[in-house]
Write a structure and sequence with these properties.
Helix content is about 45%, strand content about 5%. It is mostly helical. It has a domain of about 160 residues: Ankyrin repeat-containing domain (Serine Threonine Protein Phosphatase 5, Tetratricopeptide repeat), CATH 1.25.40. It has a two-stranded antiparallel sheet with strand order 1-4. A two-stranded antiparallel ribbon has the order 2-3. Helix 3 packs parallel to helix 5, helix 5 packs parallel to helix 7 and helix 9 runs antiparallel to helix 10. The chain is elongated.
Length: about 230
């Protein structure tokens, strides 16, 4: 499973320093499955193969759902075609997923379409905490993308702030790992737990102190363990 995922992906230089923050390039978010990119990154991180976060791009594309002549509902969502999406909602099961268990809401968050996120949540609030195959909820996706406005929108809608993936990682884990200082600040001010452990017993605080950017370390340093 792991080797199949890793061999179907290729690395790109996806991180561009901007002061103390790290901003992913726009072209880092193409590809078939962000779920597999995050999973592959997590596997490599656990093996210690690379220390700088990189986004993985899958070479393959699911032609069944990316047919420009006959776009699926998820195609419309990915492209941000709001009016077409609105026109199709009545005849669409919004909880239907792709092969990686991504719903239309997951994809709207992934592509940064806040207008569609609001439309979908108005139509079906229970989409908010649905998870992908790897256990990602929408707020996890928004956090690892570094989309602070999306994170705030999802929190306002009632997203679970410390929601964990199958690996035990919270949105704050992702924000710290990928150097998204503004997202870290937003999550912590909203009550995120800086000491929630993942399955390897790592906390966002520990990750920040060990290998976080200067800005992220400064933010997390204001939330030390209770015994210190």
């Amino acid at each position: 499973m792991i080797l199949r995922i890793l061999t179907s992906c290729r690395f790109v230089d996806s991180i561009t320093p901007s002061g103390d923050s790290i901003q992913p390039r726009a072209d880092c978010f193409v590809g078939r499955s962000p779920d597999k990119r995050l999973f592959a990154f997590d596997v490599l991180e656990r093996w210690g193969i690379h220390s700088n976060p990189s986004v993985l791009l899958c070479d393959s594309i699911d032609t069944n759902t990316r047919n420009p002549c006959n776009p699926s509902f998820l195609d419309l969502v990915r492209s941000g075609r709001s009016q077409d999406v609105v026109n199709s909602i009545k005849n669409t099961n919004l909880r239907e997923t792709d092969e990686d268990s991504w719903t239309c809401l997951h994809w709207a968050v992934e592509m940064g379409h806040r207008d569609l996120v609001e439309i979908f949540l108005d139509a079906d609030p229970l989409l908010l905490n649905m998870k992908t195959r790897e256990g990602l909820s929408c707020i996890n996706i928004a956090a690892w993308r570094g989309d602070e406005k999306m994170v705030q929108l999802l929190l306002n809608q009632g997203a679970e702030i410390d929601d964990k993936t199958k690996w035990g990682e919270t949105p704050l884990h992702h924000a710290v790992t990928f150097g998204h200082a503004k997202v870290c600040e937003t999550l912590l001010k909203a009550g995120a737990n800086a000491h929630s452990e993942d399955r390897l017993n790592r906390t966002p605080y520990q990750i920040a102190m060990q290998k976080g950017t200067k800005q992220v370390r400064n933010i997390l340093s204001r939330y030390p363990p209770a015994n210190k």
